[in-house]
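Researcher: We're teaching a course module on how sequence relates to structure. For the next exercise, students receive a sequence and then see the predicted structure as tokens, so they can try to spot secondary structure elements on their own. Here is the exercise chain.
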Amino acid sequence: MTFVWRPARRLYPQLSTSSFVQSRTIIKENKLNRAGLERVIPAFRSVCGEDGVSLSEAVREQHGRDESVHRCCPPDVVVWPRSVEEVSALAKICHHHCLPIIPFGTGTGLEGGVGAVEGGVCFSLRNMDRVLDVHQEDFDVTVEPGVTRKALNSYLRDTGLWFPVDPGADASLCGMAATSASGTNAVRYGTMRENVLNLEVVLADGTIIHTAGRGRRTRKTSAGYNLTNLFVGSEGTLGLITKTTLRLYGVPEAMVSAVCTFPSVQAAVDSTVQVLQAGVPIARIEFLDDVMIDACNRFNSLSYPVAPTLFLEFHGSEKSLEEQVTVTEEITRDNSGSDFNWARDAETRGRLWKARHDAWYAALALRPGCKAYSTDVCVPLSHLPQIIVETKEDLVLNRLTGPIAGHVGDGNFHCIMVMDPNDQDEVTRVQEFTERLARRALALDGTCTGEHGVGLGKRALLREEMGPMAIEVMQGLKATLDPKNLMNPGKVL
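Model: And here is the predicted structure for the students to work with:
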């Protein structure tokens, strides 16, 4: 079978340093021709049943795209394994027939990580959705890849525990591990990299390994190489994650949220840095520029002042919260912060953070019919005011719609670029802007991706960031674990 994939009018080079992918018209010959399908499909069905295999065009297209601007690139077939043993058996079949393997969780990624750029087999893992081995006394849990973060926290509701890593979308937890996701709570609780204790992984040839040893779930270890963090952030290019063991935390005794506005971007970001320098154990500190807060007001029928804004949240005992709030208020006041709106009850806090989590859709609503792409740079905190101010100036100078929202507590922020894909001039300006932004971050000792991953579009930027020798080491690891280059080919490296 031959698939023809044509992006909208503007054609980008496939290996562009921008985060836009696929750039010229791509005509790819599927690895699975008709004869190959006839041989392989019965083998797949013998493993996961008639209902566990689909060749439907609609199903394949559904599994060939995520939330990114990258064009749909459907697999040749989709399979739904129900256990690690089935994943292993299916992987062995793919390995024997040299078929690419693309993992699929919930499809909420932002860098094209699920596109089947060389055809192959999509492993949709949603049917593996059990919460396993909750150890309340040890503050850990093991889950299968179909479990999402919201489903886990709902399951934990009566235990007094929760999992705080929150990327906004209701992503699968194993998918979050695969992309090293983080989000609004990372400043207090860390990213997935700090919260994964162990992984069960199926390698390209079907071998099943446990990165910290079968059943191990200690908070620290000095035993051997850190295989767990090798697979966290590997984006499905080294193996399929079929279980993850995660740290849990006690639900805070009390929570309080606040919104505060500032006269300038500089004042808001300076406050962020000073709050962290003062040692305030703040749980969330999020920045929205004036364009983003205006979009959120319109989308959620709110009435926050249209100015650079911080959303903050504090966790702890009632007494500790009082101290955290007092110190933070003093710092923000010294930076001309005003219009504090406090929220203690869960309903009001939920509305506040829903507005922040809806930023993507609020930005899109600014220009109905347009597409959005979210940049994802991260820099050391001391450089944060400089890069945000320079980025804001760059957006204005180049007449671009790019509301800024960021997890500024850990130096990570996003420009949600809203553009008309049929306007060649605008698309070019966005492409050039994203390249400048990424290189601006690299020049300030930062990274081209704080949490979204490399995927399809940032491979050239990864080379610039890591350097040729580090890339060679990564390629050596890839070649050792996946010598046939079957695991999510075309991504990261």
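Model: If you want an answer key for the exercise: The mean pLDDT is 91. The chain is about 35% helix and 20% strand.
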